[in-house]
C-alpha cells in the first residue's frame, strides 16, 4: 500500500507540471506531498506491525492498534473537511481557469496550456464552449469561432465555428 501511495503521489506531482498555469497556488501540490509522507508513515507502521506480530509482543500490537486508530480518525477528519470545502475549491479552480482563458491569444505559454488541457480532457472552455464568447481572444478574432483545440479529435476539417457545435 505504501508503494502504491508513493507512486500516486509522484504521479500527481509529475502531472502537476502540465497544469501549473491553471493552479497558480503552489499549495495545490501539497496533497501529493502529503500522500508521499503518508506512504512513508504507512511503511514504518507496517514494519512495526510485522515486527510486533513476529515477536508476539502485546505492547507492540497495542501500539500498532493505537496508531491504526489515530490514522482512521485522521482519515475521517480529512474526508469531512474535503466534503465541507469542496465548493470553495471548485470556485477557486474555476476562477483561476477563467483568468487563464482570458489571457489566451493562441501564442503565449498560457495558450499552449489551455490547448493542451482541452485536448487531453476532451472539453471546450471552463464549463462549455460558450465560455469562449466572453474572452478577449474571441472578440478580437471576429470569426465567431473557438480555438481548434476544442474540436473533437475524430472530426475532420473542424473549423471551430460556433454554428457547428456538434463538432466541438
From TrEMBL:
Transmembrane segments: 28-54, 61-85
Gene3D superfamilies, per the entry: Tetraspanin (1.10.1450.10)
Keywords, in A-Z order: Membrane, Transmembrane, Transmembrane helix
UniProt superkingdom: Eukaryota
InterPro entries named among the record's database cross-references: Tetraspanin/Peripherin, Tetraspanin_EC2_sf
Pfam families noted in UniProt: Tetraspanin
One GO cellular component term: plasma membrane
Membrane topology: Multi-pass membrane protein
Subcellular location: Membrane
Protein name as annotated: TSN36 protein
Lineage: Eukaryota, Metazoa, Chordata, Craniata, Vertebrata
Gene from which the chain derives: Tspan36
Amino acid at each position: 500500500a505504501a508503494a502504491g501511495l508513493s507512486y500516486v503521489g509522484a504521479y500527481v506531482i509529475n502531472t502537476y507540471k502540465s497544469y501549473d498555469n491553471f493552479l497558480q497556488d503552489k499549495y495545490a501540490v501539497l496533497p501529493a506531498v502529503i500522500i508521499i509522507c503518508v506512504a512513508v508513515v504507512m511503511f514504518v507502521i507496517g514494519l512495526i506491525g510485522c515486527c510486533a506480530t513476529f515477536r508476539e509482543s502485546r505492547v507492540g500490537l497495542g501500539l500498532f492498534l493505537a496508531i491504526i486508530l489515530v490514522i482512521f480518525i485522521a482519515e475521517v477528519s480529512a474526508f469531512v473537511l474535503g466534503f465541507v470545502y469542496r465548493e470553495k475549491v471548485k470556485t477557486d479552480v474555476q476562477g483561476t481557469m477563467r483568468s487563464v482563458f482570458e489571457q489566451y491569444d493562441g501564442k503565449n505559454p498560457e495558450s499552449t496550456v489551455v490547448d493542451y488541457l482541452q485536448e487531453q480532457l476532451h472539453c471546450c472552455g471552463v464549463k462549455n464552449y460558450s465560455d469562449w464568447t466572453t474572452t478577449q481572444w474571441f472578440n478580437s478574432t471576429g470569426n465567431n469561432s473557438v480555438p481548434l483545440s476544442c474540436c473533437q479529435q475524430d472530426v475532420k476539417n473542424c473549423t471551430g465555428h460556433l454554428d457547428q457545435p456538434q463538432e466541438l
